[in-house]
Amino acid sequence: MNTIGHTFKVTLFGSSHGDAVGCVLDGVPPGLIIDIQAVQREVDLRRPADGIGTPRREADVVEIVSGVRDGRASGTPITIFIRNENRDSDKYKRFKDVPRPGHADMTQVSKYGQCVDIRGGGQFSGRMTAPLVAAGAIARMLLSDLGIEIAAYTTSIGKVVDVKEHSIQELIAQAKKNDVRAANEEFAESMRREILEACEDNDSVGGVVSCICDGVPVGLGEPFFDTVEGELSKIMFAIPAVKGVEFGAGFRAASMRGSDHNDPFVVVDGRLRTAKNDAGGVLGGISNGMPITFRVAFKPTASIAKEQRSVDRTTMEETDIKIEGRHDPCIVPRAVIVVEAATALVLADLVVRGGFVD
Amino acid sequence: MNTIGHTFKVTLFGSSHGDAVGCVLDGVPPGLIIDIQAVQREVDLRRPADGIGTPRREADVVEIVSGVRDGRASGTPITIFIRNENRDSDKYKRFKDVPRPGHADMTQVSKYGQCVDIRGGGQFSGRMTAPLVAAGAIARMLLSDLGIEIAAYTTSIGKVVDVKEHSIQELIAQAKKNDVRAANEEFAESMRREILEACEDNDSVGGVVSCICDGVPVGLGEPFFDTVEGELSKIMFAIPAVKGVEFGAGFRAASMRGSDHNDPFVVVDGRLRTAKNDAGGVLGGISNGMPITFRVAFKPTASIAKEQRSVDRTTMEETDIKIEGRHDPCIVPRAVIVVEAATALVLADLVVRGGFVD
Amino acid sequence: MNTIGHTFKVTLFGSSHGDAVGCVLDGVPPGLIIDIQAVQREVDLRRPADGIGTPRREADVVEIVSGVRDGRASGTPITIFIRNENRDSDKYKRFKDVPRPGHADMTQVSKYGQCVDIRGGGQFSGRMTAPLVAAGAIARMLLSDLGIEIAAYTTSIGKVVDVKEHSIQELIAQAKKNDVRAANEEFAESMRREILEACEDNDSVGGVVSCICDGVPVGLGEPFFDTVEGELSKIMFAIPAVKGVEFGAGFRAASMRGSDHNDPFVVVDGRLRTAKNDAGGVLGGISNGMPITFRVAFKPTASIAKEQRSVDRTTMEETDIKIEGRHDPCIVPRAVIVVEAATALVLADLVVRGGFVD
Amino acid sequence: MNTIGHTFKVTLFGSSHGDAVGCVLDGVPPGLIIDIQAVQREVDLRRPADGIGTPRREADVVEIVSGVRDGRASGTPITIFIRNENRDSDKYKRFKDVPRPGHADMTQVSKYGQCVDIRGGGQFSGRMTAPLVAAGAIARMLLSDLGIEIAAYTTSIGKVVDVKEHSIQELIAQAKKNDVRAANEEFAESMRREILEACEDNDSVGGVVSCICDGVPVGLGEPFFDTVEGELSKIMFAIPAVKGVEFGAGFRAASMRGSDHNDPFVVVDGRLRTAKNDAGGVLGGISNGMPITFRVAFKPTASIAKEQRSVDRTTMEETDIKIEGRHDPCIVPRAVIVVEAATALVLADLVVRGGFVD
User: Fold this and answer.
1) Which residue of C has its CA nearest to D240?
2) Strand ranges (DSSP E) for D236-356?
3) Where in the sequence is the domain holding B284, given as residue range(s)?
4) How far is CA D237 from the centre of its chain?
5) Residue B262: inside a domain
6) Neighbours of chain A (3+ CB pairs under 8 A)
7) Is residue D358 domain-resident?
8) What ipTM does this complex have?
9) Which residue of C has its CA nearest to D12?
């Protein structure tokens, strides 16, 4: 349903074209310093960029309506509110009858019936990730106290692929400075061109987000089922448009030999580490102290201006559909902060469950 | 922890070198016909094959000790027991001090302390998948009544990759007939060679399992968080050695344009379908009535006979380690039935939650 | 924590002296007609009465900020907001050091530390029951469609005890008409006097609320643990000031013989019923189709104007404490609607879990 | 369903007349010393006494089949098995058609259908409390390390009521020495007579169990919903035959004034305590460091040899029923250890959730 987490839990509410979106965070340790400006800054990073993003602009002002007093978590649930302002809903009615290819219109109407609110994707909208980012910002404050840092960046857009390794320091310094969230301005430029080309063709394009978590202690994860990878992948697939998740060497591991893939143990500065990190920081579902690394594949935005084939469900006849409205030609740049936030929520829950917080 | 599922739930217990492994299944609809021979047959499919599998052989006799009466589920939890017989545990002691690369020894000891039982991987052992397969067999009986079929098969081993599309009928007919679980004997032969070569090199090799679920009704999945992809990926990452999961076009979608990736809606036999299935049967986290398709990447078996580098934790000095014992040079053929079982558990929970069962 | 329910779930947020209190309801069947006026009416029934209630008056305006569209549940979580207006918080600071007898000041500060917000009871305040009542009103709409009715009333206040049996029709017609929520005006008058006497003595008084649920189908409850009684009692003890819960004959059953207590089965209008209802409508944790009946004991309001003994935690010396401020001399009349709402939430969850809703 | 607990969790399985009953305990801290003899001793205390208990005698041998190695918890789930031996099941068939008054036959068949196993009460049998006691014994080992002690005893049987206060030391020393589990031999004698009289009349009798938990730290309980009282009451109502639960002054509090009921704070040995304990050790749902005290009402055993009225569901005609078989004329003496075990399970979960264990 709309809640995730075992002890540090977030419940999302609202919909794209309702009054507001928001969330309730339960299990935040009392006394945690909550920097509302920092929450707002993270939410702002999710907003579309000029030129390569949708022209729909929401102010996305974060209101904390409960759970914080005098700048600290009080121990009661933290409720966050983000009002919807810029709604343009009329055009969605038709999609209940003629579902948009690649969209959830068809599955939503089939599952929930005609009362479902599909405007802007309703509950399935990318807009639901705004409160997710706000919640993630608070999770990050908890993690930051433990020395855990998270950095995601755009690794590929369409045919442009960044195969270089980047340090987390480089990513933290650079990736939020360009509007594509690429590791540096050079990649950003090529990726921006790829997005604009798709846009000019009335089309959209997909991409990959990579994520690195540094400073993670040994011992996060609660096997058999609540593994680090399992918990992270579950929340990643809740982000609209995600089609794949892989850790460390990922799918590449399938073609490797064990002697290549196994990461030898070594001693670095008196601590047990591995010489490389094809495991992606996880062994047996538990963090091993190396950076947790994973990659998330995003499909191209489903809404495109090009004409597409669909079916009118009232007559069951095939028909053409053209989606007007305002859409991102590529969701990936905006998804980077969402991946970071979702990661923070999972790690915060695991550190609380694992007893790493006082 | 060791329980998964919301309404149709499974709890695993036991460890590789304890007395037994087993599980408790709660939420099985009373009256469901339970075919114990069929459960045993599925568990037998998980056993290692001659030549390409580990020489450790367990009888793996399935005992149902509660919850079934006169061949039907009674509504109380079903408890399944599989005794461990063929144990050879002495050699594991050393691995608490000198962790095996690629294994969970290091993370287990760090997390649970010296009392943890790492023999054979303990709770993290592939052996825990035996009761998972038994539980999945029961989930399958529930799904079968609804016309849902699941077929997984080996798509790649090392460098040998099967890129052909196979119908689910072909897979059901062929994949269990060869010991590699390939789509046909031709692929099986090449893949078998790939495994034997790795074995001769005292090494191991990884691979990919693909899975198709047919007959799935529209409307499975409980967004925002409990999506079809999220629930399936979470359980897949609980299977030892899994490093990646992708649905439909998966990572390939990241390089596509929207006009290529979106599946156009069409009418087939009076029903709303899509002309192709790059979505992998899921839109907005909810099944759309097309086959659910996904691929799971397995790393090469961590245990190899080759000498590897590790660290003695008592002295914090680097050292060499050689793993003797009995291991599968490639886990993929045995993982095929495990992927099917895990899939069945998730789908059974989603059909019960979605109200598709009476 | 702050969430209750398995499939129909409510999460409470806010605190007595924060900006707002509210809740998120997940699992409301899409299409359910939501009558916002009816929600407001139920919340209004929780407000204090003139003369016998606290002079603190909140407008308690219910805002539904998500999940309802065109008067129907849309399938996404329903979020309800009730702003706090009438706050008078200064006097609470002292209670962190000198805890009020019978209050949660001492346990809150010990558990959550100095950041906890104890103003007005904070998260432990009776004020948290306002959103509970709003959520219960929605649960009631679901139950009402199934013919389930819930009526609670004040059975005793201090020494005044109503031992008569009342039909649910009588209770529905009468109990909300008097400010004590007694079964009739005669009892209301005696109980009102009991409250006013306590008030004149600068004291408070306790009482008992009885509850009847009619029209309950056979088969609610999910043993072994999620029994009708277990689920109802758990939520009742979340209502501040509750000290006891009993079903049917309750504690009286302890002194009975089996031949007196067992309810004989009879046939009434062709249906299987029991000749009397000492079981309180539950056998083996499952509803048996007879009315579910239970009684809830409330302690006297902890806040009294009389001087009391306490301890100053900074010096660990005993001291006197006088609680000024505005308090109900008896919480029972206002608790009646809260008991009904909490009951509705539990029954709604059980009917959804039991498959009684479409 | 059949699982209870948030972090320290127990899942029950089996049924009265199946092969075995048992449980799986998840979340037991690795390294905890598990004394199997102590588990067996607790389970033995649940067995019926000569003269006043049922003649059905089960050996109730406890087998731990997973999760314990070298006398310590290994961190994996602990699975406990108790085989059923002494079954005499034929007589139960008739009760599917002609339900026994006061029993769950009618609700079980209505809810689960004809496949349900009602022999001996099936899943609703008092026999399910045998694995509950075994699990509780392990919870107790965890609590004992923290200095928490639990003692329950029989406070009333029928008309014989023990209104004296007893110290926990007295109860620990005396209550297990007599077969009624009374506070001393004098009460035991009167209560035993009350049971035998009921038995001679072919009847049964109810009673009350009181429970005291000493050494409980301040701060257990997770409001709003997961309060100490809420969690304890929920599990108590899962024990067959329980009809009421009250804490501290309980129902008596309803007739009290606030000035009488509020427990004044005092300093004892430098610690904050209350001068008396009408709160039963809980304020605002959180333990306050005083002993947690509560009372549990048990109805008389439903199975009596006296003729009773019932209905034949196949013909829907009223009929007489006589229950032969072997039954306890009073369940209360055997319930005492069950109340202790259930209490231990709840407190163990709360201490783990509250971070009181390493």
Assistant:
1) C284
2) 242-247, 265-268, 271-274, 282-283, 286-287, 292-298, 308-312, 317-321
3) 3-353
4) 9
5) yes
6) B, C, D
7) no
8) 0.97
9) C224
Q: What is the pLDDT of residue A19?
A: 84
Nearest chain C alpha carbon to D290: C107
Nearest-Cα distance to chain C for A263, in Å, is 41
What is the token pair recorded at C115? 């950041």
Over the stretch D16-54, which tens digit does the pLDDT of each residue have?
878 889 999 999 999 999 999 999 999 999 999 888 888
pLDDT one-digit tens code per residue, B104-132:
999 999 998 887 877 766 666 788 999 99
CA–CA dist C194, D256 (Å, integer): 11
Average pLDDT value for residue range D136-150: 98
Residues of C in contact with B26 (CB under 8 A): none
Q: Which has the minimum average pLDDT: A197-211, B252-266, C110-124, D3-17?
A: C110-124
Whether C267 sits inside 8 A of D205 (CB atoms) is no
Question: Which residues on chain B are in Cβ contact (under 8 Å) with C353?
Answer: 7
In the block, residue with structure tokens 């007959």: B215
Using a CB-CB distance cutoff of 8 angstroms, which residues of chain D are in contact with residue A358? 355
CB atoms within 10 A of CB A357: 17
**What is the pLDDT, as a whole number, of residue C88?**
65
Residue B211 has what pLDDT? 98
Q: Produce one character per residue of A297-316: b if its CB has 16 or more CB atoms within 10 Å, e if not.
A: bbbbbbbbbeebbbbbbeee
* Residue D330 pLDDT level (bands cut at 50, 70, 90): very high
Closest-CA distance, C224 to chain B, in angstroms, reads: 9
Distance from CA of D345 to the nearest CA of B (A): 17
Distance from CA of A88 to the nearest CA of B (A): 21
Paired sense of beta strands D242-247 and A265-268, if any: unpaired
State which residue of chain A sits closest to B10, comparing Cα positions: A225
Half-sphere exposure of C108 (CA within 13 A, CB side): 28
Of D69, D77, D112, the CB nearest to B75: D112
Residue numbers of chain C with a pLDDT score lower than 70: 86-89, 120-124
Please state whether the predicted TM-score (pTM) of the whole model is above 0.90: yes
C208 occurs within a structural domain: yes
Residue B172: pLDDT over 90:
yes
Using a CB–CB cut-off of 8 Å, the residues of D that contact A are: 7, 353, 355, 358
Measured distance CA(B99)–CA(B305) in Å, rounded: 15
pLDDT surpassing 70 at residue A87: no
Question: Please, which pLDDT band fits residue A50 given cuts at 50, 70 and 90?
Answer: confident
D88-92 average pLDDT score? 72
CB B280 within 8 A of CB B294: yes
CB C124 within 8 A of CB C108: yes
The answer to whether position A64 is within a domain reads: yes
Cβ pairs bridging A and B (under 8 Å):
367
Name the minimum distance, in Å, from the CA of B180 to any CA of chain D: 32
Grade residue D353 by pLDDT with cuts at 50, 70 and 90: very high
Q: Which two tokens stand for residue D200?
A: 């001679």
CATH of residue D104's domain is 3.60.150.10
| CA–CA distance, A322 with A339 (Å, rounded to integer) | 30
**B201/A257 touch (CB, cutoff 8 Å), yes or no:** yes
> Does B115 contact D72 at a Cβ distance shorter than 8 Å?
yes
Domain count, chain A: 1
Q: Which residues of D touch B74 (CB under 8 A)?
A: 15, 112, 115-117, 122-123
Q: Which of the four pLDDT bands, split at 50, 70 and 90, describes residue A121?
A: low
Kindly tell me the number of DSSP H helices and DSSP E strands found in chain B: 9, 18
Instruction: With CA atoms as reference, report the closest residue to B16 among D12, D21, A281, A224.
Output: A224
Q: Which two tokens stand for residue A162?
A: 């960044």
β pairing state of C308-312 and C292-298: unpaired
Question: Alpha-carbon distance D327 to D240, whole Å?
Answer: 14
